[in-house]
Every structure is written in C-alpha cells, then in structure tokens.
Fold each of these.
Amino acid sequence: MAVEPGDIEGRIAALVRPVVDDFGFELVEIVFRRENHGWILRLVIFSPTGVTLDDCARVSREAGYLLEVEDLVPGRYRLEVSSPGLDRPLRNAADFRRYPGHAVRLVLIDAPEPVVGRIGEVDEQRVVIELDDRSMEVPYALIVKAHLVIEF
C-alpha cells in the first residue's frame, strides 16, 4: 500500500492531540514525509514556558504507543517529537498572536525583498508589521513564509 502523507496527517492529529494536550502542550505541526533514511513522522509541540528534551521524550512514548496500537501509519517510520525552535515558522493567526512585539521576517508574494519588522496587531485576516518608520498591514494570503528572527 502506498503511503500518502496528506491522507493520514488529520487522523494522526485526532489521535495524538489529546495526549499532547494532557501534557500541557499544543500540537502545532505534523509532518509525515519520506526523507533520506525512510519515512519520518514529526510532531512539533509548543508551550509558552518552553519544551524540554524530557517533555519530547514523554510525548513520544505516549503518542508512539497510541500510534502502534491504532496502527494508523502503514509500514515503517521513525517518530520524532520536537519543539518549533527559536526561529520557528509562523503559519496562522494563532502563531502570530503568541509573539506580540517579536521580530519577524516575512517573504511576501510579489515582493522583491523580505520584510523585517515587529509583530503588531493580529486578527484572523491579517497581521500588522511595525517597521522603523511605519506600520504595514499584511493579509495572510500574501505571506509565502514567515519566521521569527532570533535576537541576541
């Protein structure tokens, strides 16, 4: 049977989200794809207070057990649980709301250069980016990529 990533990620989310929630984390991304050494199932979890290696191991054990019992993923795969990282991608309004005032880098449709500014007001249709000399309203539909900028 061929493995189709898009067909399975929703079922995996429905199965593992309660486990992630019980540990006090948010499931922010599921990636199921073929990489150099076979299939990878990556669960990305978030907490405003941070995610430790022990947290990832606990979620991995519980989610791995459920996935094995339910047998949702055909064939062999490697399960990885991680945090989004300091320069995490931002994909939707909820992601932008978590980081008010943080520096962000946006790649926009038809923009020759990335936009770098600070996250301002956020709603369901757009985010306001505070630039040095002005504010810029950016509809999510125009964002190709958005990442937090690591500041030291």
Amino acid sequence: MQDRVLLKKLKKDPEEGMKAMIQEYAPLVYAVVRGKLNRGLFSDFDIEACVADTFSEFYLDLDKYNESLGSIKSWLCVMARHNAADLVRKRMREGVLLPLDEGLCEEEGLEEALFESELFSELVKEIKALGEPDSEILMRKFYFSQSSKEIAKELDMTISNIDTRTHRAIVKLRKKLGGDRE
C-alpha cells in the first residue's frame, strides 16, 4: 500500500487506517524489535508491547510525519529500534537481566542459558561502570549496531571522538575482564 493512501486512511478513519498499517508493517516492526530484544532477557509480552507502542507512537505523532524525510516503513523501523533501546536501558537501570524466554532454556539447556545470562550481566555491569558517555557509546555501537556517525550525531560529538572513546573503553574492559592476555 502506498504511503499517501495509508495516510489518508489514518486521517479519515483511524481505526481502519491502523488496521491497514498493522497488517502491512507488523511483521517488519516485530522483526526489528525481536532483533534488538533477542537475548533471552525479554518475554514475548515485552516484545509485543514494544511493537504495539511503536504503532501507537506513530499514530499519536502522525502530524510530525514528513514523507520527504522517509517512508512510513522507515519511520516505523526507526521508532521500533528506539523503543527497543529504551526498554533495554530501562531494564539495565532496574538491574533486571535474567532470561525470561523459557524456549531459550529448553533449547540450550538451563545451565548454559544461566551462564550466558551471568556473563552478559557481568559485561553490562562493567560497561555501566565505565560511566557516561562511554557506556552509552558501547551499548549503541555493539548492542544496537549504530554506526559511529549515528552515535556522534545523537550524542553531539565528533566521529573521531566516538571512535577514540570506543577503543579506549574496549581496552579498559579487556583489562577489567581479564582479556588482556598476549
């Protein structure tokens, strides 16, 4: 469905417009969110809530949508990615980093899942201990796969500053976690 047709539907009959948008883009938005929340740390409910929040946010901010800046598909993907990132940051602040996906435990075995969760929790704890902005840079770069250019823009820094901080933070992490063996 073309963006203009979908926008008309959303404005004329919001309920039908939302149904059409969800039917068209739900699999894509779900895949984006699932890709960011796939560590076994988030339940299916968390993922579905994040997807629903993405569609709701798009509709509530419909007047901010500018088709010259990107398609509805692009906007939804960016929103989904940001909503997933917000959920991860919230869980990090709460210190909730336990596997919630029972399927993960059955597939890999409970011990292995718990071991991976403990390793991940330890890594996140050490990343947070680096302080801002280094912890934010590492999470954006390696967990959310943002480029140095994207991070620099969002944190109002230069690309070279992002790259230098990334390198130094990784060196610090290696020393803290015992990975500096030669």
Amino acid sequence: MTSSAESFSKETSTIKRASKTYDLVYIALFAVLITVCSWISIQTTVPFTLQTMGVFLAVSILGGKRGTLSVLVYILLGAIGLPVFSGFTGGIGILLGNTGGYIIGFLFSALFMWGFEHLFGNGRVIQLVSMLLGLLICYAFGTAWFMVVYSRGNGPVSLAAVLGWCVIPFILPDLAKIAVTLMIAPRIRKYAGIRPSA
C-alpha cells in the first residue's frame, strides 16, 4: 500500500515538473513570437508593426497567466538592451521615451485580459470584448505616458495631437489584428495541442 502511494506521489511530481517545463517553453516561445511580430513592419501611409497581434495571440492561445508572462518576458528582454522592439531597438531608453508607454501598456492589456478571462471564461465573444478593452487600456496608458514625457522635453501638447500621432492611424490596423487573432488562435491552439492556462 505504501509502495503504491509512493509510486503515485512520484508520478504526480514528475507530471508537475513536466507541466512547468512546458509552461516555461511556451512562455519563451511566445515572447519570441511577440519579438518577431514587432520586427515585421507593414508599410502604409503610417507604418505599423504586428506587436499588438503578438500580445493578443499570446494571451488567447496560452491563456491569461502564461500569456501575460510572455509579454512580461518580452518587455524585460527589451529593457536589458536586446533588440526586441520595433526597428530592432532595445534598452531602457526606449521604454522611458515618448512611445515607451505603449510597450508597457501591452502588459496592462494582458493583465486585463487575464482577469477578464478569469471572470467570464474564454469564449469567442468574451475574447473579442477582452481584446477591444485591452487595446483601449494600452491606448490610454500609452497616450498619457506620451503626453507627460513629450511635455517635459518639448512643452505642452494637446490630447488631440497625441491621438492624431499615436492612436487614430493605428485603430483600423489594430482592429484587423484582433480579427485575425480571433480566426487563427483557436486553430493554432487545437493543432498544437495547447491548453490555455487559468
């Protein structure tokens, strides 16, 4: 009887270790995915990257916890100087610069989506609402950050001006990224056999 209990305990411990290893691999993999998305620049009248889509994919495929950790790892890699941000840039100076708030805002978006998912589940409609609200949070934090940092170096700037520079041109592309994420995330999760974390 004792032998069976010990065997069961060992098997449980092995499964837990394997699960943690998979979690670490997924987190690292999606931090890399966000990095690659940030490097892809689509040239339009106002060029944009796929960073936000990388964030949405991480949270919708991995679930709130692992997805948020992927975003955090991505930001930390950039903070220590690795060229993971758009334009192959990195360093704490980027985060403390005018547009750094939008990068940090990704983390707040992911945290919100995690909490929203925890409360309401991860159905398609819930994910859509979660991504839309998460995007608004990123816009709000990034815009407030931009206004503070820009004003310190260049004098006062209006909210309308900052929205015109940093938000309005990106609304339609970001909505398109949300639509693509909603289409491909379930398929990736299914074919890769990834179960979303809580």
